[in-house]
């Protein structure tokens, strides 16, 4: 989204890597192209909630940090006639082409914010219409699941887990596949209708058992890549959560398997930490670039590495997981670690979150 906005911006912009791009109405300022300091980028990291923020760089030129629904862009290399008091008169005269008043920047910014919102609303409507069409599929899937559970119930065992273990492999695979499909459809429904995330009452969830169960759903998919899913940690807490919580480990484990290098492990840990339950999903694969880490939870966003590995992704997974996490009052965090001897850009990806048990 940010790259699309930069491409359609009438003013010159600079990205986080220091690359300056001319606008469709105004070329890049030659002083910016030669600049080695790039002090304007600092605002990209410092600006918070201010929608349009003006400042002056060391080269005496104006730049603007613009807050948009999907991030920020920096408009650079201009001379704001009213607020840029430090620009020398000779420089103003020689660069009069780049004199742009605050009002022009603000007007363009407001237009883009409205266009993005309109686009988001239209996407949400299309998504809601698409998911609504899956009602009959969900009904049929529920029927298959009930009949599968009835078959499993005829096997020997004192508990549901024992009866499932005593089933033949085709029935086990069918049960896990139907559960997986049902949870994925549930996740799609949350993208179309986020209010459904908090439907129903919270109930006690045995997080360790729940995450372990979801991890087992992916064993056969992981085996095709020679990826092994391991479960570790120790947790006995049962925090009160909405039923939508299942979607979070589903998405994190799904992504971990999908983007792992062949033959590597996906390690899942669930631990009690004081009054909290900590969950972490680790995998080895391409790392998320620093400039993309604040974007991976945006709807529709996918890194270039993700696109190369899997062409069928929608960019909705982490977005949905973040919605569900927010509804539960916690945040999903991402960090990476390099692996000794591996090429740059490859290493350990870790997604984690902490649930308060109260």
Question: Can you characterise this structure?
Answer:
With 358 residues, the chain is of the alpha+beta class. The chain folds into 3 domains: 119 residues, no CATH class; 66 residues, no CATH class; 151 residues, 2-Layer Sandwich (Heat Shock Protein 90). It is built from 13 helices and 12 strands. The strands form 3 sheets. The protein has a 5-stranded antiparallel sheet. α5 packs across α8. The longest helix has 31 residues. The protein is elongated, with a radius of gyration of 25 Å.
Q: Can you tell me the CATH architecture of the largest domain? A: 2-Layer Sandwich
Give the CATH topology of the largest domain: Heat Shock Protein 90
* Secondary-structure element string: HEEHHEEEHHHHHEHHEEHEEHHEE
Nearest-integer average pLDDT: 86
Overall body shape? elongated
Helix content: 40-55%
Tally of separate domains: 3
Oligomer: single chain
| CATH homologous superfamily caption of the largest domain | Histidine kinase-like ATPase, C-terminal domain
Number of strands: 12
Uncertain segments are: none
Structural class: alpha+beta
């Amino acid at each position: 989204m940010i790259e699309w906005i930069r491409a359609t911006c009438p003013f010159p912009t600079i990205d986080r890597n220091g690359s300056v791009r001319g606008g469709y109405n105004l070329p890049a300022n030659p002083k910016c192209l030669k600049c080695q300091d790039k002090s304007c980028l600092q605002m990209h990291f410092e600006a918070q909630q201010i929608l349009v923020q003006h400042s002056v760089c060391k080269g005496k030129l104006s730049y603007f940090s613009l807050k948009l629904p999907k991030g920020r862009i920096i408009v650079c290399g201009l001379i704001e006639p009213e607020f840029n008091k430090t620009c020398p008169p000779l420089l103003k005269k020689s660069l009069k082409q780049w004199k742009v008043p605050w009002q022009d920047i603000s007007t363009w910014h407001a237009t883009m914010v409205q266009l993005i919102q309109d686009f988001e609303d239209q996407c949400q409507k299309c998504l809601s219409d698409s998911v609504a069409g899956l009602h009959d599929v969900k009904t049929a899937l529920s029927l298959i699941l009930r009949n599968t559970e009835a078959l499993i119930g005829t096997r020997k065992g004192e508990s549901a887990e024992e009866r499932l273990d005593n089933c033949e492999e085709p029935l086990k695979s069918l049960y896990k596949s139907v559960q997986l499909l049902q949870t994925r459809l549930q996740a799609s429904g949350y993208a179309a209708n986020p209010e459904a995330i908090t439907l129903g009452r919270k109930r006690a969830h045995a997080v360790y058992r729940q995450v372990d169960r979801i991890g087992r759903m992916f064993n056969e998919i992981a085996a095709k890549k020679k990826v092994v899913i391991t479960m570790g940690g120790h947790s006995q807490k049962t925090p009160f959560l909405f039923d939508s919580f299942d979607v979070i480990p589903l998405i994190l484990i799904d992504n971990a398997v999908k983007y792992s290098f062949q033959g590597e492990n996906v390690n899942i840990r669930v631990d009690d930490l004081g009054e909290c339950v900590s969950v972490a999903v680790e995998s080895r694969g391409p790392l998320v670039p620093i400039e993309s880490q604040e974007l991976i939870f945006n709807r529709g966003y996918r890194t270039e590495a993700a696109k190369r590995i899997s062409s069928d992704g929608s960019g909705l997974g982490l977005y949905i997981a973040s919605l569900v996490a927010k509804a539960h009052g916690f945040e999903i965090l991402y960090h990476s670690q390099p692996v000794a001897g591996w090429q740059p850009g490859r290493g350990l990806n870790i997604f984690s979150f902490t649930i308060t048990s109260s």
